[in-house]
Design brief:
The chain is an alpha+beta fold. It comes from Odocoileus virginianus.
Length: 729
């Protein structure tokens, strides 16, 4: 971007600031580093596309490196104390900040750390900080914001003798600021320096040409659409971006600028809508606050009721314990008084001693008989002493185990209906969407309401569409192609409704689904291939016939591929279909082929399978390299041994790991006859794996080829009949 363009755009932002449409606080929030919480200083762009200060990246790496060393030291010798610093020393940071620093004991060995902006782990790779781009655009905006939103501090001349004068211009080639006199001295008229580019006073000196961090002598001239970062031509020819789709820098600049300008104009044009939504959010916040206070009051009321019940039970239990204690103490007191009477000069013993003083025999016998009985009882009680009551209160221990468990499970009331859960494994989208869910207490729900809506950031938030369902699955049709849809479900029991389930996001195919079956008449080899009755599944049988054919390999015969095509051709439009390759398959080729190419294959199958014949066979052949970039009447990718092989190009790396991917569970094919291209997708994630041009001047057919043991199953269209079959299964 030119300097004048940046000034005009920044002036437009400042105009919005002046009119109050963009607040200073909101602008400043975008210019603050997520790590140090201050305005950016020399920001770097991380692989996750977030920016962070140069110094902050080093601090994070050094802190992680020191913590790793601390853990290793503690594990090796736990008795040796070590002081753990909260942050790296400035000496370490300064040493690795100097130009030409090399990896040594003071250089951070750790290259992976969590991004402060998104908290995802980012790996800087072997080059570390040197492999990151400096965000010059953000740096320029930060400096101009400081001058516009705050009291601008004068920039002094770098060449003046003390005291320095205030600078009037800065030289972008010299990376220095000058006053008028110094500028004339160091940039004399008629010299090379007089041609230097100069701007107003600034401290932000950015290079004129952005160089590649991986190839330091190459300038950036392309943009990788997959990695979303600028690259040079060496990165595309033999680097990590050889198999990635790239575009020219001017095209990427134009596209991204148009998108950004369009989004900004859209947001500015929706100012009234945003204000109304802010007012609505304000009302929702107040309503939430009131409802929260009301919920707290209700909770306090319920707990106070529990406290009252506990207090009543507490008083009752304590009263029973006091009554039992008083009764036992009374019994002990009576027993104690009886025993005290046995003591000398007390009670019964004293009375018996007085009776013994009686001399009249008749009177003594009359009194002593009854007294003797009482003495005998007292004697027997001495021989067999037994307390009148128990001292233990075991029968009065309060058992609160069950109540404690119930109180521990005390939670909020969920209106009596459990929340249903969407089954992500059974839910899918193809020509239609199939949404399945399960309910923990299925019999308690009378019906369900399935809600769905399209996720579109360019338009207003779309309302939810509702469908009442009696079962636990539903097929939804009439969904737009290449769109994200959100689904959720809630259960009803009478008039009581459960909360909504967690949302499930599904991406629809990039084009309408093309329905076809395998053609059993055109080139079908029934000796090697086996079709099922529905003609949507084909298997390759590596039997006795294949062993007989293998004997001719000694005379240059290649074991042939067995081709099978779809029964319907495509002449125009954009179509998508999907299929599954069995994991045990040895070699399967899948893609598209034109009608004239099919006739050539089926007429001479022996030559058609020569390794030098096939454009994407994976062999190093001259024909392959020379014809790769030209539009071909067919495109087949190779799948087998649980791998997906990207066809080789002359600009890609020779290492096979760059072209071999794990085999997706379901593979999709997108044929665009109008554009003349074919693309292959991972259907589960709806992600494009490989795309190239194809000649669509003739009718195009879905084509498959198998060799050895293998099987291909066409993806079945989702219909109400399909749903009934799934439920019966």
């Amino acid at each position: 971007m030119s300097e004048s363009g940046e000034i005009s755009e920044f002036g437009y932002i400042m105009e919005l600031l002046a009119r109050g449409k963009v607040t200073i606080k909101n602008i400043e929030r975008e210019l603050i580093c997520p790590a140090c919480k201050e305005l950016f200083t020399h920001p770097l762009i991380l692989p996750c596309q977030h920016s962070i200060c140069h110094k902050c990246v080093k601090e994070l790496l050094l802190m992680l490196d020191d913590s790793f060393n601390d853990v290793a030291s503690d594990n090796s010798n736990q008795s040796s104390p070590r002081l753990r610093l909260p942050s790296p020393s400035m000496d370490k940071i300064d040493r690795i900040s100097r130009p030409g620093w090399k990896r040594n004991s003071l250089t951070p060995r750790t290259t992976t750390f969590p991004c402060p902006g998104c908290e995802h782990d980012v790996d800087l790779g072997e080059r570390g900080i040197n492999g990151l781009f400096r965000n010059f655009t953000l740096e320029t905006i930060v400096e101009r914001y400081r001058q516009a939103a705050r009291a601008a501090t004068a920039i002094m001349c770098d060449l003046c003798k003390p005291p320095p004068q205030e600078s009037t211009k800065s030289c972008m080639d010299c990376s220095a600021s000058y006053c008028n006199e110094c500028f004339k001295i160091y940039h004399p008229w008629g010299t090379v320096k007089a041609q230097h580019e100069y701007v107003g006073p600034t401290t932000n000196f950015r290079p004129k040409i952005l160089m590649c961090p991986e190839h330091e002598t190459e300038r950036i001239n392309m943009y990788c659409e997959l990695c979303r970062r600028p690259v040079c031509h060496l990165c595309k020819l033999g680097g990590n971006h050889s198999n990635h789709r790239v575009t020219t820098m001017s095209s990427a600049y134009k596209t991204l600028k148009e998108k950004l300008s369009k989004d900004i104009d859209y947001l500015i044009g929706k100012e009234s809508q945003v204000k109304s939504q802010i007012s609505e959010l304000d009302l929702l916040m107040k309503e939430t606050e009131c409802n929260g206070e009301r919920a707290k009051e209700d909770a306090v009321t319920h707990f106070e009721k529990l406290f009252e019940i506990l207090e009543e039970r507490k008083a009752s239990v304590l009263k029973a314990i006091d009554a039992s204690k008083k009764l036992r103490l009374d019994k002990f007191q009576t027993q104690m008084e009886e025993y005290q009477g046995l003591l000398e000069n007390n009670g019964l013993v004293g009375y018996a001693q007085e009776v013994l003083k009686e001399t009249d025999q008749s009177c003594f016998v009359q009194t002593a008989k009854q007294l003797h009985v009482r003495i005998q009882k007292a004697t027997e009680s001495l021989k067999s002493f037994r307390p009148a009551a128990q001292t233990s209160f075991e029968d009065y221990v309060v058992n609160t185990c069950k109540q404690t468990e119930l109180l521990g499970e005390l939670s909020f009331f969920s209106s009596g209906v459990d929340v249903p859960e969407i089954n992500e494994e059974q839910s899918k989208v193809y020509n239609n969407a199939l949404i399945s869910w399960h309910h923990p207490e299925k019999d308690k729900a009378d019906s369900y309401v399935l809600e769905y809506r399209k996720i579109n950031r360019d338009e207003e938030m779309l309302p939810w569409n509702e469908i009442e369902v009696c079962g636990t699955s539903k097929v939804i049709s009439d969904l737009e192609s290449d769109c994200n849809y959100a689904f959720r479900v809630r259960a009803y029991k009478g008039s009581i409704c459960s909360p909504c389930s967690r949302e499930l996001i599904l991406h629809t195919p990039p084009a309408p689904v093309f329905s076809f079956l395998f053609d059993e008449k055109c080139g079908y080899n029934n000796e090697h291939l086996l079709l099922n009755l529905k003609r949507d599944r084909v298997e390759s049988r590596a039997g006795f016939n294949l062993l007989l054919a293998a004997e001719r390999i000694q005379v240059g015969y290649y074991t042939s591929l067995d081709y099978i095509i779809g029964d319907v051709g495509i002449t125009k439009g954009k179509h998508f279909w999907a299929f599954r390759v069995e994991p045990y398959s040895y070699l399967v080729k899948a893609g598209v082929a034109s009608s004239d190419k099919l006739q050539e294959w089926l007429r001479s199958p022996r030559d058609a399978v020569s390794p030098r014949y096939e454009q994407d066979s994976g062999h190093d052949s001259g024909s392959e390299d020379t014809c790769f970039d030209s539009s071909q009447p067919f495109t087949l990718v190779t799948i087998g041994m649980k791998k997906f092989f990207i066809p080789k190009s002359p600009t890609s790396s020779n290492e096979p790991e760059n072209r071999v991917l794990p085999m997706p569970a379901s593979i999709g094919v997108l044929l665009d006859c109008d554009k003349g291209s074919v693309a292959f997708y991972d259907v589960d994630h709806m992600r494009c794996l490989y795309e190239r041009q194809v000649d669509c001047s003739h009718a195009m057919y879905p084509a498959f080829a198998l060799m050895g043991s293998g099987g291909v199953q066409l993806e079945e269209s989702i219909t109400a009949k399909y749903l009934g079959y799934q439920e019966s299964m």
